[in-house]
Queue: 2 jobs
Job 1
Amino acid sequence: MTRDAMTTGGLGVRIASLLGLLVFWAVVAWIADDPQVLPMPQALVGPFWIELTSGELLHHLWRTLIRVAWAFALAMVLGIALGLAMGLKPRLDRWLDAWLVVFLNLPALVLIVLCYLWIGLNETAAIAAVTLNKVPNVTTIVREGARALDPNLSAMAQVFAMSRWRRLRHIVLPQLAPYITAAARSGIAVIWKIVLVVEFLGRSDGIGFQIHLYFQLFDVTHVLIYALSFIALMLAVEWALLQPWETRVRRWRSA
């Protein structure tokens, strides 16, 4: 079977799966028989179009996406650097392992509240809270990858007197790539959910803010519109960017 056929087949399965979810939603809504509790899927089309054409939906989607992008980039950079250092330097790992365990078990809500109290209700606090929540997870995954580096390849790099930059680029990063992609895929899924909580608690725009607004109005339809819109955007990022990237970086292992 060709790669194009496999891709087409996978797309077909995903579409069929999503259609099945819509059918399940419609059946549950029909059984509930209360639009204020769970509206039918088609009941969202009109309000969705109004939000889209007014610019409100796009504005709040964009604000949330910017926060997700900043927190994701910072968490990945800091987590990769820290994980690589801890994986390669056992003494540093012994010193920082307890810190890592503490931050891994610190609830996201606590960090969000503390950042807002210490820094203020601003963008810096919002992005810092999300970043601090994700850095420990990235660090843990990358540290395991650094511990699994092939010592024979490192010895070869020393024999050929490779520079530190070339060793990092051609020896270390290709071996860490599967771990980095795993951290990225799990990270994007967690980060956007935490961003919504951050916006729910202390921002004046974004998907989380809109969900908070319509929660206060007991408007289930608009809560679903904003939530599903951002879920659709994140699914697009996952399928169009992260999954192809993961396939590409793993290709050398199966070659």
Job 2
Amino acid sequence: MKILRTVKEIQAYAKAMKAAGKTIGLVPTMGALHEGHLTLMRAAREKCDIVIASVFVNPTQFGPNEDYAAYPRRFEADCEKLATVPVDAVFHPEPAEMYPDGYCTYVNVEGDITKKLCGAQRPGHFRGVATVVTKLMNLSRADEAFFGQKDAQQVVVIRRFVEDLNLNVHINMVPIVREENGLARSSRNQYLSAAEKEAATVLSRSLRRAAATYARGEHDVEKLKLIVTDTLETEPLASIDYVDLFSFPDLQPLQRVEQQSLLAIAVRIGETRLIDNVILGGEAM
């Protein structure tokens, strides 16, 4: 597995792979890898000749009061996990390599898809995501890129700018990977104490209750959201950021679920903000 640390190194590697006629799959990550990330890598491995993972804690997608400095950085352990897939190359630049002195260009996705859910809670977040993902796709010359359903709004935003900017990359969304207790895998789970980790299972329980009610024929949006809210409020350690339900993938408001839809939540367990979701009305691609 090659470790690429500079823009020139990843460009040269991608150029050589393309010259050899290889298809390239990209899996962008911020490290602190877990089984959810590795599932993305395996999906890329199945579909592409070459798999490039990035491990880069991107400063431009963090707000001033968020956890950029504290975000877990465990590159050696990450490499051990990547080698098991196996991944062909990992791109691990320093922030100054991606944003050198004088850097002033950003990709900003306008429209209401970035003004709701996490976009409403984290101003500027998706500008940072769109910018770094655009750069990573350009540097890797990716044919395919892989992202997790847990960040479903992020997938919607990425697909939007890929289409709008005519980028020749196919965006794959891979289903959520969960722990045995139902908790969605997340690097931020490492912040949770044992008691908080148990409390955090309320997220998936609330979504399962709503999905089961939908499956029994309840399609009223407000009633489905109320099931989630009521369940979350049974957990004293949980503080709700949002519970919302939109059409998927266009994220438009609904009164009734009569099409594929995204039921998404953000909840703080102690000081840790977690997100989760379920897609109603069929499996999303």
